[in-house]
Amino acid sequence: MSRLKVYYFSPTGGTQHVAQHLGERLGALLNAKAEYHSYTLPHEREEMPAFGADDIVLWATPVYAGRIPNKTLDYVRQALHTQTHNKSLALVTFGNRAYDNALAELVGLMEDGGMQPVGAAAMVTRHAFSDTLGAGRPDPGDLAALDSLAEQVAAKLASPNPHPSAITVPGEAHPEKYYTPLKTNNAPAGFLKAKPSCDSTRCTRCGRCVNVCPMGSIAVAGGRPSFGGICIKCQACRRSCPTGAIAFADEEYLSHVAMIERTFAEPKRTEFYV
Question: Residue 31 sits in which domain range?
Fold first, then answer.
């Protein structure tokens, strides 16, 4: 029996939720055992995946600045390089702005690595920066679209053709640039080096932020978190804090959040390709 191996990078849980929904549905249709693997935390990226010849691979990632998150890109590229030519599915999640080149980039990495992509999807989830942008997504309609994707992929895999036709998705498979975030005045927003801060009067010293940082960049100093390493603005620390003690106060960052909430409020559609 084939195995469905599902890998996801999901600092705030949205991508994991979508990947597991698609994995459960597709696994049931294929009568395949679904295995779930996170590569979110540093120790989870210390080893490369191992795929058997009959394994079907579902790879899921959020969109950061229109592409695969740059701090995970090398890991994804190496992980998707295989000699077994596995059938694969590409899944990206985006916060209702756009997925730009991310889906094409992921499909391209699969093809470059020797895999055979048979399906791809771009799913709207809540934007990590905002409580309103993409709120309530994925909704039942989004999940129904994933179910339809699973059904079409299962039918494609059941075809007697051992080499299914390639899929075509919008965007550049080998992009060179990332999306440039803008402020409310449409000037570039420069918050690359921005880091969160902690309100010591609200911090309970629970340590959750330390444990969820995908870069391993949060340490404890003086009994409370210290944000000294690389920050990818994933918001895992802020969203995991039970008292709301962690926040981003950088003015350029806050202006960008205001811009995307104003400009991209109209709900985007989930899109999939088989």
Answer: 3-178+267-273
